[in-house]
Amino acid sequence: xxxxxxxxxxxxxxxxxxxxxxxxxxxxxxxxxxxxxxxxxxxxxxxxxxxxxxxxxxxxxxxxxxxxxxxxxxxxxxxxxxxxxxxxxxxxxxxxxxxxxxxxxxxxxxxxxxxxxxxxxxxxxxxxxxxxxxxxxxxxxxxxxxxxxxxxxxxxxxxxxxxxxxxxxxxxxxxxxxxxxxxxxxxxxxxxxxxxxxxxxxxxxxxxxxxxxxxxx
Length: 217
Known about the structure:
The chain is mostly helical. Helices cover 77% and strands 0% of the residues. The longest helix is centred in the middle third of the chain and has 31 residues, at 120-150. The relative contact order is 0.16.
């Protein structure tokens, strides 16, 4: 059993990470209120939440970062991260080329085209931010804390995967839920298996990098 104080800290931390990432339009707010405009405004609030989360863990919860998955990666962690990243890319291609036509779904090509017209350095920043922030806020912190609160890593996995999937609805459209859901399942399995946030970030980066950094024919 965890103490009452620890339980309250975890609930606050979950609101800061999982709830914020799932329900708040951080990118839109950054553009509207940061004064930075595009492209930095879209990213700034995400990095702020990452910084606040790390400070919260260290200063309020007084825990090591290993308590949210920041553990030294082993060789197998890296190998599996690369494999999962490749599986994500392969699966997404199949979803785009086969599943979408079968279900008569279309991707929000306007959103993708707009991003692909941005400079490479910005897309690199976008991919890196997504890998770092989303794995911290949808996997590392919430899976560990929900597991403590509920005693069930399976329930923690379901809740966080659902949040990750839903968060990708805005801006991309319903079709993106299939892509995000598939990726979310693989990334959640990887974290449950290895418990290493660095490995998850690498897998996430590989998948997004293939989509946003490689030239599209």
